[in-house]
Design goal:
- By secondary structure, this protein is an alpha+beta fold.
- It contains 22 helices and 26 strands.
- Strands 4, 7, 8, 9, 11, 12, 13, 14 and 15 form a nine-stranded mixed sheet that branches. It has a five-stranded antiparallel sheet with strand order 17-18-19-21-20, with helices on both faces. The protein has a three-stranded antiparallel sheet with strand order 1-3-2.
- A hairpin with a 2-residue loop joins strand 18 and strand 19.
- Helix 18 packs antiparallel against helix 21.
- The protein is elongated, with a radius of gyration of 34 Å.
- 38% of the residues are buried.
Length: 621
């Protein structure tokens, strides 16, 4: 077919020609040209005649159709970009100005929590596995930087030509940073969007290295419509429906770009003469040669803020619907997870049961009630799940923990039997004498048991590990001085006093003590930080986390030591461990906040208390 196509293509532009000229133009021998002419004439693709001394070879309608069909097929053949790893980085384009708003749209608040669009977007990205984000600013750059604060997972780049440039200009600024991160691929998003988490999940899971997220057209004033070819690649974008042969989706402003595809975009942009061009149209242009996939998410709930009316609609209707759908998706995930753990067990009810670091659900199934834990972000870097699984099972066998049904050391998913008539203690109820006695009893049982943990919880080493994860995040003023004293004074003194190594829980917040209000039995739950340690660390945590007064501490000692006097060094060890815990958890707080969490004054309050207590220790001991 190729030689015949070349012949007919040449004749479509020069019908009057001799065979030698045809041979020269097509690169086909004269003998082969003559044979092709006879074949084309016999098959009805051309008519032969004479014009002077030269032949007139005229294409028939059938010949024109053959050329058209071949060209259409050829135009559909596109090169494929190399496969890329799942994105771990993202670029958010936040340079634009909306005249009707007095601050960048991404800083507008949504929902009851008062979080901003930007907070929401960064949270969704993090939950889906994005570790680092580039935020390209323009208008009110400083306002956005103040909002980002000391977060180390966000790098802010300023596009000082934002007034005259389009989104591709902002995206081009990210090149050096992405290269320094050795990113294989990344997501790109516009900052004025709010969307369900599954929008990002769809692009994270696709195999297409160069793709845009599409959904059903919503009829907005600024919608960018998409037309696909037969292979599902994006053929055309347009805001004018009259330019689209078949509307097959709306571009959401979210895309996945491999670094190879990004380089093609930058090459195209380097030759571009229109600084206002948007990154979507650059992707479309690259997509004429390379496969540019449309990833469709049906019935996606999302919104784009172009005007105050859009913002009001988002607050009134769109965002509540997003929250409702995401709750349903989370509940479905809980149901599906339980179905894998307990196949065939009918699930009757799924109810959110709270959680700060993790998300917990109360599950009512045919076989009973359970608490399902789905791990939160960053827990994989801060908690050794293998230790937790082993220790929680041992604690369950010893009757200290509620019954452990399932624990996955790789994913962090855990299923525990529900404690009937459960009363989760609070600092106030824990300080009641009845509950204090129960807490003393269960801690004594743990500390005096023959349990052997394989791991050690060393708060000094944990603090070093958390500090190493801080990156560029800044600790509170006075941190270097406190750090020197912690390691130069407290650690040697603790060894001198005798640093016992016995089975400990190491996380004695009130919520980790759950009581059966009918039987009076108490349980220790959540063994994430468990390991060998000095029992005074647990007691210091109990006192510190639950606001024990000196009188409360004295009463607890009475029950814990069963009426016997406390060891002479117990008080000093407890004070040292109080200082160490405030020091450790203040670093933990800064680390969490550097990745987007907000704990208010919690971290600073603990740090300040550590400074006061170390001054007390220095004066007293």
């Amino acid at each position: 077919m190729e030689p015949l196509f070349l012949l007919l293509s040449a004749l479509s532009t020069t019908p009057v020609v001799d065979q030698r000229t045809l041979s020269s133009v097509t690169g086909i021998s004269v003998g082969k040209v003559n044979a092709l002419i006879r074949q084309a004439e016999s098959e009805g693709y051309l008519l032969t005649g004479r014009e002077g001394k030269k032949s007139r070879l005229t294409l028939t309608e059938k010949g024109h159709k053959l050329l058209e069909t071949t060209l259409i097929k050829r135009s559909g053949v596109k090169l494929s970009l190399s496969p890329s790893a799942k994105p771990s980085a993202a670029v958010i384009l936040a340079g634009g100005k909306r005249e009707a708003f007095d601050m960048p749209v991404c800083l507008q608040t949504i929902g009851d929590s008062g979080q901003t669009l930007l907070d929401r977007m960064l949270g969704v990205l993090s939950s889906c596995g994005i570790e680092r984000t580039i935020l390209v600013t323009g208008w009110q750059d400083q306002a956005i930087r103040r909002h980002i604060g000391s977060r180390t997972d966000v790098t802010v780049l300023h596009n000082d030509r934002y007034k005259w440039n389009g989104t591709m200009s902002g995206l081009a600024l990210a090149e050096d940073t992405l290269k320094s991160w050795n990113a294989d691929s990344f997501l790109v998003l516009k900052s004025d969007l709010v969307f369900e988490q599954r929008a990002v999940s769809a692009l994270m899971e696709t195999d297409a290295p160069f793709s845009a997220l599409l959904t059903a057209p919503g009829g907005g004033s600024d919608e960018l419509l998409a037309e696909l070819d037969e292979d599902g690649s994006i053929f055309r974008f347009s805001k004018d429906i009259r330019q689209i042969n078949r509307v097959q989706g709306e571009m959401t402003g979210i895309a996945r770009v491999s670094m190879e595809g990004y380089q093609r975009m930058l090459e195209y942009f380097s030759r571009n003469l229109n600084p206002l061009i948007s990154y979507e149209y650059v992707m479309e242009s690259v997509g004429r040669i390379y496969r540019f996939s449309g990833v469709m998410v049906d019935d996606l709930c999302w919104g784009k803020i172009e005007s105050p009316a859009d913002y009001k609609e988002l607050l009134r209707l769109t965002y509540p619907r997003i929250e409702r759908k995401e709750r349903q998706m989370q509940e479905k995930l809980a149901r599906d997870t339980l179905a894998q753990i307990l196949p065939g067990d009918p699930i009757e009810e799924v109810e959110f049961a709270g959680g700060l670091t993790n998300t917990n659900y109360l599950i009512k199934a045919g076989s009973g009630k359970y608490i399902l834990r789905l791990p939160g972000r960053m827990t994989e870097t801060m908690i050794d799940r293998k230790n937790e699984k082993r220790n929680a099972q041992i604690a369950s066998d010893y009757g200290l923990n509620c019954r452990l049904v399932y624990c996955n050391a790789d994913t962090g998913v855990k299923l525990s039997a529900y404690i009937e008539n459960a009363e989760t203690l609070t600092p106030r109820t824990l300080r009641l004498e009845e509950n204090m006695a129960l807490a003393a009893e269960i801690l004594g049982k743990l500390h005096r048991s023959d349990i052997v943990w394989e791991n050690r919880f060393d708060a000094f080493e944990e603090a070093k590990r958390y500090e190493a994860l801080l990156g560029g995040a800044s600790m509170y003023e006075g941190f270097p001085s406190l750090k020197r004293k912690v390691y130069a004074l407290l650690r040697p003194r603790l060894i001198e006093l005798g640093w016992d190594q016995l089975p400990c829980h190491n996380d004695l917040v009130a919520a980790n003590l759950v009581k059966n209000s009918v039987t009076g039995r108490i349980y220790l739950i959540d063994w994430e930080y468990s390991g060998t340690n000095d029992p005074m660390f647990d007691i210091a945590a109990l006192f510190l986390e639950n606001d024990f007064s000196p009188e409360d501490e004295e009463l607890f000692f009475h029950y814990y030591y069963e009426g016997r006097p406390a060891p002479e060094n117990a008080r000093e060890k407890i004070l040292i461990f109080k200082i160490l815990q405030d020091y450790l958890w203040s670093i933990w707080t800064v680390l969490k906040e550097s990745r987007g969490d907000d704990f208010g004054t919690y971290g600073h309050d603990r740090f300040t208390r550590a400074q006061k207590n170390i001054a007390l220790w220095e004066s007293k001991f």
